[in-house]
Design a protein that fits this description.
Length: 273
Amino acid sequence: MNNLITTCPELKPVLEELFLVSGYLWEKGWAERNAGNLSVDVTEIVSDSGIEQARTTQRALPFNYPLLANRYFLVTGSGRKFRDLARDPARNTCILRISENGSGYRIVWGGASIPDFRPTSEFPTHLRLHEYIREAGATERVVLHTHPTELIVLTHLPEYRDEASLNRALWCVHPEVKVNLPRGVDFVPYAIPGSESLARATADGFRRGRSVVLWEMHGCVAKAESPAVAFDLIDVLNKAASIVLKCRSVGHVPTGLGKEQIDELAREFNLGE
Ligand code: 13P
Ligand code: ZN
């Protein structure tokens, strides 16, 4: 780790923020065992740093990602734990480089002393989202998947299993939800974890402009400029979900802010809709 920072000092603030957010995820109870994963596009930071000294063998990707060719990603390892990340980043994360034609990758740092180290099993989703970010010319660099308890509970309740009901329920219980997530959430019906269908459905949700994508009975995904911003989006949403559930647990189904009040927020805060 110290070697990494000596080779590439610009990585230090990225890693420090990542460690901080990993701790938050664990403390929130959204990162049981190996739950959740994170990737950061570090191309601009590491590409000229001479980081690429370890020459591991190339592994194939299941699809071609030409928009990601030659890009570098810091990615958490499959089965690794967020709670261990700061203590031993070289065992729990890696930096990999996508090949010149976008059909494979090579680990250039990390995954240390773990013979079968692999990037997260949700790598298909991370790749599709970074591909979408490139396609859209966006400034985001981070993709975060986690298991926020109250949001998952909402996706178990039949009345919230569609995008319109979820957005209405989350926006109406607190004004800051609309302010921080003006484009709301997308709802992806249950799909096998780690699958390409889950990855594509998630990218479609962002393509339709949503701020966060919820995975039914599983968790959610955010993309943002930094790990802290991705965390904050999910934190605001999960707070709203917990207000919905607390109201319901005292026997009140919240009606909350009406459409007029939500439209007024959009106008007052120039939220663009
Ligand atoms: P990984 O340990 O492979 O990252 O999987 C965790 C997870 O949350 C899968 O959805
Ligand atoms: Zn998960």
